[in-house]
Amino acid sequence: MSHELIAVSMFLGMMALLMTGQRVFAGIGFVAVVAAVALWGDRGGHDLAFTSAIKLMNWFPMLTLPIFVWMGFVMSETRMADDLYRMFHVWFGPVPGGLAVGTILLMVLVSAMNGLSVAGLAIGATIALPEMLRRGYDKVMVTGIIQGGSSLGILVPPSIVLVLYAMIARQPVAHLWLAGVFPGLLMAGLFIVYVLVRCALNPRLAPRLPAGELARITWGERLGLLRAGVTPLVIFGAMMGPFVAGHVSLVESSVIGALIATLVAAAKRRWTRAIWETCLRGTLNVTCMFMWILLAALAFGAVFDGLGAVRAIEAFFLENLGLTRWQVVILMQVSFLLLGMFLDDTAMLVIVAPLYVPLVRALEFDLIWYGILYTITCQIAYVTPPFGYNLFLMRALAPDHVTLGDIYRSIVPIVGIMILTLAIVMAFPQIALWLPGQVYGQ
Amino acid sequence: MPALALGFVRGVEAVNRRVGRMALYLLFVLAGVLVWSVVAKAFFRPALWTQETAQFTMIAYVVLGGAYSLMGGAHVRMDLLYSRWSARTRGAVDCVTVLALIVFLAVILWGGIESTAYALEIGERSRTVWRPYMAPIKIVICAGTFLMLLQSVAFLIRDIALLRGTPIPEARP
Amino acid sequence: QGAPIRWRMQTYAGAALGEHVVKPAIDRFNAIAEGQMQIELFYADQLVPTSELFRAMQSGTIDAVQSDDDSMQSPTEVTVFGGYFPFASRYSLDVPVLFNQYGLKEIWDREYAAVGVKHISAGAWDPCHFATKDPVNTLADLEGKRVFTFPTAGRFLAQFGVVPVQLPWEDIQVALQTGELDGIAWSGITEDYTVGWADVTKYFLTNNISGAWIGHFFANADRWAAVPDRLKMLIEVCFEQSHYYRQWWYWGGEADLRVNGSKLQLTSIPDAEWATVEERARAFWDEIAAESEVKARVVEIFKKYNDTMAKAGRPYRYS
Ligand code: NA
Ligand code: NA
Known about the structure:
Chain A has helices at 3-19, 24-39, 48-58, 64-77, 82-92, 98-111, 118-134, 139-150, 160-169, 173-201, 211-215, 219-225, 230-245, 250-267, 273-306, 309-320, 325-342, 345-362, 367-383, 389-397, 404-427, 430-440. By secondary structure, chain A is mostly helical. Helices cover 44% and strands 19% of the residues of chain C.
């Protein structure tokens, strides 16, 4: 079998199997082991799946995964963000579209405390969304910004997606995380501009709060509410401070954050038996889901690489197509956007791993910068139908009068802003690379 | 369904539930080890054993909790078509595609058993200064994979029962 | 003429280093073999993790390997001598002499044949120096330093208060930046510059604990047997060429970067003080020799060789 044929059949086989609705990790892993056993050579190859488990075990930043997942569950289940939401509500309420702006800021803070978008979405859909709907905010606009805002969880550090990318691309996690800060803030800023502009043009999208309501809240109360903002700052500071200063490792810093979040919830007397059970089981489930997809992806990558498929693809892109390096990168992003409609981000990594990372390296682009581009395409994948985590979650959590059609329409401008951010970061890599350069002096 | 098949499903799921419930708490073992690592570094000498112990705990968490997470339906599917099918159609398709799951797990186990036998035979140790033996964690990975394999077969039996019009009732979560 | 033979070879080196220490030889082999045989090169952990590398070669998943014995934990009596065995060699030329003239080659061949692996050849890499963030001028400066190093070297250095730390190779640079590591005792100055560690450390200690790393090319024994003799010879010649490339690349690089490199400042522990480390190494040798007959043989050869070199005087040994 030629290398090109192996590449195409492994890839198509995987896609076909995934379309049957079988578990994603099983589809990826099956194609990997069948190809390994059938095509590797006269013997050997069958142990690549097990050695992938060892690879996964050896990679210690992966230890942050269950810790951050736990933190996300603690935050959303114990309703730690309630006070935060109230703070933004009161402080931004008077601005046209203020509650929506406050929600975006809430999403940024929640993103700074956890590594996935799930917690942000759960908080946004259960706390912010009903409140904004009650106030007559436009349902399409607000469901959109909650889905978009919560996806910042994977771009603003800490980020589990960047940990996974770091493993596949063999890049330092700390650099990647710092590289995500400004693109994340940029995207949040663009969301805010979008809300303010739309609400200025059409005030009916976001009715102002009645003057009497705000007047009833004293300045003392308002200042008191600012204390709610202290918790995330303490968690973020306690987590990132010692890590960036070099006192603790990445993994250790995640435990500090999780410990503080757990204790804060205890201090607020939010722990019940049911919440405890939800957090425990949820953490195991999400961790297992990620780890098993990753294990399958590592096996797939090793087999794909060992069978020569990577070299075939590389030669195809670089020699046969005769494109410039920028054309190749743009083509890769476009293909990502298309794949992202159908695949989840970890499954997308299966494609990143064997194909794109060596290609990016061969083209002499910065792999840290590329990790940020990849993460933004993951964010887009979260909100694009037919397969998007945030769409599923929103469908499950939103009140009934928010229809599936509303949810799909809501993401159109959001995807536009995300693509704009992607283009800006592509054109100006320093937005991503400046901060890690400053901190780690390169 | 034959009593033997029913017994198999009930037995496997009971074992996997119990193992999974225990695996849940490995999260705190992991956190404890990492907290000690911070404390030791800050106040004593950096501990030599914490990093590997944490890694072993993590992989044990994922493989021993694997079957329980399968039972809990935690593993994502691309449900573009799947979500629109009837329960019966899903059962019929799963009946076939669950073989992908079974084959993947079986091949992991194949490599795992070989690697474990090798580790036992030569007394394989990790190459760190702490030098723990590698056989125990490899045995744990094999055991967890085996339990997941049994769970996949239980899924197959459940799907067959569904297609025959005698679905097996779900046990408590 | 049958189908072309296709080998997968994984090196323990990452891509940046592999560009020098192995890729040129493989490229030449493939060019000369003209399609009759093709060796595909994979870098550290690319197909299988280094900890499973030996097993993968034994089972046939990987056909050939470039590594030291210590890094891949091969199940032989000679594993401890691969990589950096403290003070076993002073110059990189010592390694081929030990293997080809003092009988190490036969011992290695026998040990590996017993576990289904063909030992193709041994070669030297760079010396083992400390690169650190704080200067090291006396032995006391080593106390409490968290250092990334080889397993056997770590065991030896622990008696001077060094805290050996194991991390995945790719994380070293960041661990130095974030302060998880105070330094490395892993390579010479050429490698420090090539892989970027010189960017994150400040000082280079000119004393070394070994003058040359011992590493090898191996192949799965059955796959080796299946290769026609003419191609076997070509493999051997090309791998020798790889050893030769490293001889001049490191030898020249070490001197040049000490003198002309701008990133690392040199420090030294006085010879008299460093002599105590060499003395402890002798005790360490005896400890290892007591573990088995084969190990005793190897230690005896090291002793005999170093004795001969000392007696030969300059330029072989200066003290
Ligand atoms: Na985050
Ligand atoms: Na999508």
